[in-house]
């Protein structure tokens, strides 16, 4: 696995934000991605990248999460519950996890060790970009998820 420090761009996105229990995350993500895709289609906006889950703060028994889709720019009225946001840019550490979602914690641990060795400190937020569509690729061992941990300045 390659772990790198990058300059992450600011991204405009359509998201649905909610606090959910850990066991509710998969269902919430599916709902949010569908609502954001519908909003993008209604507004005639092209989706500009992979769907993502943006985690606000450290997880406990629940997560504060924004799930959505990047768009190039945004004008027009959004449906209730969908909002336009700017996902922050700046220095970040990234890695691509290959495999099922239930093993993502292994990649997070490797990234955190790599950062610690280099004296890098992550901020409160992180996000995952889902590079593989599970419907198009049912083999979970081939799923790719890009993990992004923004760094404190």
Layout of strands and helices, then pairs:
Layout: E1 3-8, E2 11-21, H1 25-42, E3 52-55, E4 62-70, E5 83-87, E6 90-98, H2 104-117, E7 126-130, E8 144-150
Antiparallel strand pairs: 1-6, 2-4, 2-5, 3-4, 3-7, 6-8, 7-8
Summarize the structure.
With 153 residues, this protein is α+β, with helices and mostly antiparallel strands.
CATH architecture classification name: Alpha-Beta Barrel
Number of helices: 2
Low-confidence stretches: none
The counted number of beta strands is 8
List the secondary-structure elements in sequence, H or E.
Answer: EEHEEEEHEE
Mean pLDDT: 94
Structural class: alpha+beta
- Oligomeric state of the chains present here: single chain
CATH class: Alpha Beta
In CATH terms, the superfamily is Regulatory factor, effector binding domain
Span between termini = 25 Å
CATH topology heading? Multidrug-efflux Transporter 1 Regulator Bmrr, Chain A
Helix content: 10-25%
Shape: globular
Number of domains: 1
Q: Provide the β-strand percentage band.
A: 35-45%
**Main sheet properties:** 8 strands, antiparallel
Cross-sheet strand order for the largest sheet: 1-6-8-7-3-4-2-5
Rg calc: 15 Å
Account of the protein in words:
The chain has 153 residues and is an alpha+beta fold. The chain has helices at 25-42, 104-117, and strands at 3-8, 11-21, 52-55, 62-70, 83-87, 90-98, 126-130, 144-150. An eight-stranded antiparallel sheet has the order 1-6-8-7-3-4-2-5. It has one domain: Alpha-Beta Barrel (Multidrug-efflux Transporter 1 Regulator Bmrr, Chain A). It starts with a strand and ends with a strand. β3 and β4 form a beta hairpin. Helices cover 21% and strands 37% of the residues.
């Amino acid at each position: 696995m390659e772990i790198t420090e990058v300059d992450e761009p600011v991204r405009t996105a359509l998201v649905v934000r909610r606090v959910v229990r850990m066991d509710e995350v998969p269902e919430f993500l599916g709902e949010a991605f569908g609502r954001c895709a519908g909003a993008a289609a209604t507004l005639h906006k092209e989706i500009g990248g992979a769907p993502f889950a943006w985690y606000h703060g450290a997880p406990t028994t629940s997560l504060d999460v924004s799930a959505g889709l990047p768009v190039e720019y945004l004008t027009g009225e959004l449906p209730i519950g969908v909002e336009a946001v700017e996902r922050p840019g700046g220095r970040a550490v990234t890695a691509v996890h290959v495999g099922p979602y239930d093993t993502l914690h292994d990649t997070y641990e490797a990234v955190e060790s790599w950062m610690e060795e280099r004296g890098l400190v992550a901020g409160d937020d992180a996000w995952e970009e889902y590079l593989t569509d599970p419907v198009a690729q049912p083999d979970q061992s081939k799923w790719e998820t890009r993990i992004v941990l923004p760094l404190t300045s």
